[in-house]
Amino acid sequence: MTKTLKPYSKITDFVTGKKIPNVGAEENRQTVEKFLVTEKGYAKEDIEVDVDLDIIVAGQPYRSQIDLVVSVDGGATRFMAFKCAAASLGSREREILAAARLAGDAQIPLSVVSDGKSAIVLDTVSGRKLGEGLDAIPSKGEAFKKLNHLDLQPFPEAKREREGLIFRTYDSMNVNVGRNIK
User: Fold this and answer.
1) Where are the chain's structural domains?
2) DSSP assignment of 44-70, as one string?
């Protein structure tokens, strides 16, 4: 039996200009992308869309993506990781924290979950909530100032396996996403 997908339309991604499936929280992500550029002063070039995240969980490779990653210094340093959600923001905090901790040699300093109308901003290293609402998302100027005072930290190797399990558990519930449409 062939699996039939629910029909979907395509929209143009604000940052990349590519046609993408309009599924899940895609409209919310488009709102966040526009907000970052028009209200917070980021250039489209500062924003990476669908950033690959390749991890090993229980000895097996697991591949996913982070919705958005924002840099402020020409792409040299990733500053914020975003999970764009369609529902309860609080239920996605742990997912984006895990992704931002595992996304490279150094943890991405800020983790953000947003539906385009509100946001929760978290300190990735401590997991502490820094603010709520779209105003809590730092502008490019604010981010650049913070970046000058940050000590980028790697995620402890001894905790990577557990953090990978946490990420995979949350991420595996994201079935209505563009990467699952071929």
Assistant:
1) 10-176
2) GGGEEEEEEEEEEETTEEEEEEEEEEE
Q: How far apart are the first and last CA of the chain?
A: 17
Which amino acid is located at 35 in the chain?
F
Burial 126-160 (b: 16+ CB within 10 A, else e): eeeeeeeebebbbebeebeeebeeeeeeebeeeeb
d(CA 155, CA 107): 6
DSSP designation for 158: H
CATH 3.90.1570.30 fits 10-176, yes or no: yes
Report pTM: 0.89
pLDDT digits (tens), the chain, 182 positions: 445 456 778 999 999 999 998 887 899 999 999 999 999 999 999 999 999 999 998 889 999 999 999 998 888 899 999 999 887 888 889 999 999 999 989 999 999 999 999 999 999 999 999 999 999 999 999 999 998 888 899 999 999 999 999 999 888 776 555 444 44
CB atoms near residue 19 (< 10 Å): 11
Residues 6+ apart with CB under 8 A from 145: none
